[in-house]
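Predict both folds.
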Amino acid sequence: MPTPRLVVGLGNPGPEYAATRHNAGFWLAQRVAQRYGVALARESRFHGLAANVRCAGLWLLLPQTFMNRCGQAVAALARFHRIEPADILVLHDELDLPPGALRVKFGGGLGGHNGLKDIVAHLGTQDFWRLRIGIGHPGDRNVVVNWVLKPPRAEEQTLIDEAIDRALSGWDLLAAGDYPAAMQRLNSKPPASGEPAAKEP
């Protein structure tokens, strides 16, 4: 399989959103930038913060257009560098997974995620890779907007942080385009309440 050439973290810009559930994709993308030792810098032509990770042959992008317009940034960078949708990996929060869970998937539904919807609208296809970071569901769809724009509770934040650590532990598989192995390693759910988290061997 081809290696990802563009990794996109989804979130909303600005300090008022920095700690909110909807910014889980930003959190992971920023950790990936730290892992590679690159600085994300504003790129006005790509409507976001971007870094060229030459050692991995990929671009990192954090759109600064707000979630419901992030497709503008993704499409701008992808078209400029002639990156196909199948070579894009999007890191995003996922309501339908509990805090601490991760899922790697290709294509498929959008789960009502406005960021994914806008990316699809701009790319014209759903056929790109996603790494879904569970944030849990409030149980009432009428309060979802308020839920994603609030910080996680302390115990949820701990589980999300642990999931981000697991994603980083399997990052070499994702960067190599070994998605089947990444799925096997990362498509997990958090331990039940009261159970200790699994340790790395």
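Second protein follows, with its predicted structure tokens after the sequence.
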Amino acid sequence: MPRKSEYTPQHAASGREAKFPILETWPNQYRGYEITITIPEYTSICPRTGLPDFGTITIHYLPEKKCIELKSLKYYILAYRNLGIFYENAVNRILEDVARACRPKWAVVRGEFTTRGGMRASVEARYPRRIR
């Protein structure tokens, strides 16, 4: 039986170079505390099927000199709504953009995605990157 179209390099790279709203920051006034932001209404589109993906994104970081401004984060996350991007790419892109914006001591972005087809996926990325 012939297979339907395979995943392509274009599917894999979809959304990685998209333009997003700027993540604004504000000057941190304290040291030695952690921030956790939970976004339970993340949505995007599967780049191959066009079906919607749903999940919860959690951003946990130790601020240094800057903190992420939450309204700008809301607009940033909303920009994923109609974007074709795989879970893995979305989580890693969010981590890169958060790290670039506020330069935390460390950050973890976790995506927990809604069950589809009897499977549930979670993806976690850390800054600084651990290369093995």
